[in-house]
Amino acid sequence: MGRGIAKKLLTYVLDKFNDYTIYSCIDVNNIPSIRLHEKYGFKELYRFEEKNDNKIKKQIMFAKNMD
After folding, report:
1. How far is CA 57 from CA 26, 31, 33, 42, 54, in A?
2. Do residues 45 and 25 make contact, with C-beta atoms less than 8 angstroms apart?
3. Which of 48, 8, 52 shows the shortest CA–CA distance to 28?
4. What is the per-residue pLDDT for 65?
5. Packing angle, helices 5-16 and 31-39, rounded to 10
6. How far apart are CA 48 and CA 51, in angstroms?
7. What are 13-20's contacts with CB under 8 Å, separation 24+?
8. What is the pLDDT of residues 1-59, one digit of tens each?
9. Rounded to 5 degrees, what are φ and ψ at 53?
10. Other C-beta atoms lying within 10 Å of the C-beta of residue 45
11. Is residue 8 classed as helix, strand or coil in its secondary structure?
């Protein structure tokens, strides 16, 4: 954490796939990832819950470059 790897990866993806809509699904508790995506212009589409092994994970779906 804090080494800039996510920032570099996100920058690469945005540069490489600039003409595409990019989706990202993030756990609601992953505040650093949410802030990073918002900083790069991702917008929240919706929230949902995912049940797996009797555990409920709350997720947020983000998108960028939607036309």
Report:
1. 10, 15, 16, 21, 10
2. no
3. 48
4. 85
5. 40
6. 10
7. 14/40, 14/64, 18/65, 19/65, 20/65
8. 678 899 999 999 999 998 899 999 999 999 999 999 999 999 999 999 989 888 999 99
9. 55, 45
10. 14
11. helix
Q: What's the CA gap between 13 and 17, in Å, rounded?
A: 6
pTM: 0.84
CA 44 to CA 6: how far, in whole Å? 19
Tokens describing residue 3:
């080494």
Q: Please give the full DSSP string across 21-48, using - where no structure is assigned.
A: -EEEEEETT-HHHHHHHHHTT-EEEEEE
Amino acid at 55: K
Residue 22 is encoded by which pair of tokens? Answer: 């990019």
